[in-house]
Request: fold
Amino acid sequence: MYGLDGRIAIVTGAAGGIGRAIAVRLAREGCDVGIFDLDEAGAHATAERVRAEGRRAAVALGSVARRAEVMGGTATLTGALGPIDVLVNNAGILRTSPFMETTEQAWRDVFAVNVDGTFHFCQAVLPGMMKRARGAIVNMSSWAGKKSVPNHAAYSASKFAVIGLTQSIALETAGRGIRVNAVCPGIIADTQMRVDAEAANRAQGLPDLETRAKTVPLCRAGSPEEVAGVVAFLVSDEAAYMTGQAINITGGLWMS
Ligand SMILES: NC(=O)c1ccc[n+]([C@@H]2O[C@H](COP(=O)([O-])OP(=O)(O)OC[C@H]3O[C@@H](n4cnc5c(N)ncnc54)[C@H](O)[C@@H]3O)[C@@H](O)[C@H]2O)c1
Reply:
């Protein structure tokens, strides 16, 4: 346990998958949690899980890609819970296609959520964090943000961008009580994105999850809870000397 008692967190994309696991883990560590997502039913289900851990929860609905909704959602969650100590920019989307079949719309959609969303939310919470000289941010990249694979041009480029954004904000906020890191999960099972990715792989005749999991040094896919544990560590004081890092959570699939 990392002892986050009394801290207030926002987790984006927390209506399911990895984001829900992060919200629940942060609550277990003592955080009150604000959930920002497009999916109303999923967001409220996560809020119930947070309350079941004995912590306060609040929901704001909107798209991370729309700046006004991010600013409004941040104000709603701050009003309900208090000043934000922890931000996890988890919301993300995946579109796969051969590069020459990638439409401009798909390219822009992926960047709007994965990159612009992270940009908007960091700008929404950082003024409060800077004023209080206290805060921790974790941005969701991917191992595809360090090494690409075929048919992932937009996704991979967006996740490389998240690492660059993380490093730049970390440098500008270092020494002001704020740390900014990224995580780079590998193959994480039990999420909607994984279900969609596996369907796309099947359609393209690529190896299935079971076959690819065997190529992972730890011989299996990871779980959302295993990503959440690393995020909880990174936002805690145990990681007080870490900023600007991009931490692999890949079962050894990627090592640099
Ligand atoms: N599953 C994996 O194998 C894997 C691996 C590496 C990185 N990731 C990253 O982890 C993050 C979470 O992915 P997941 O696998 O849990 O996916 P998921 O599809 O299960 O969950 C994504 C969540 O984000 C929300 N969301 C999507 N677009 C949004 C928007 N515009 N505004 C607000 N919320 C939005 C969805 O409603 C959903 O609740 C993503 O950033 C993804 O790129 C996932």
